[in-house]
Every structure is written in structure tokens, then in C-alpha cells.
Hints:
By secondary structure, the chain is an all-alpha fold. The chain contains two helices and no strands.
Amino acid sequence: MLTNKRKESNRFELVHNLTKETENKLQELKEGIDDWLKDRKLAAQKELFFAILDLSLSVGKVVIQHSINKIFKSVQYVLENVIENIRKLFSITDNEDLKK
């Protein structure tokens, strides 16, 4: 009878130790998964940050290009008017009737 109780006690202890070991392994797995999730979240946040930065720079570039085009057209219009006025001035001075 004593040996049966001892065997049963040993089995109980073995099952208890196995359960504790399983719990420890599961806890380690949970912590590993939590760490992996934190790493993935951080990586996703970094990717999102760079995507937003890239988008912002692209939008800024489009806005600046639009402004530059407006300024270029304004300068071009002014230069065309200056050139036209210079031509008119030359045509006046080239007119033989005015020279006499």
C-alpha cells in the first residue's frame, strides 16, 4: 500500500512538474508573441510615418511646381509685353516720316 501511495505521489509530482513546465513554456511563448507584435507595430508605424512624409513631400512638390508655373507665366507675359513695346519703339524710330 505504501508503494502504491508513493507511486501515486510520484505520478502526481511528475504531472505537477509537467504542468508547471508547460505553463512556463506557454508564458515564454506568450511573451515572445507580445515582443514580436510590439516589433511589428513599431515597424508598421515607421512605414506609415515614411509613407506620410513621402506623400507630404509629393504634395508640396506639386504645389511648388504650380506656383513656379504661375510665376513663370507672369514673367513670360511681362517680357512679351516689354519686347512688344520695344518693337513698337523701334518701328516708330524707323519710320522715315518721323525722322524728317
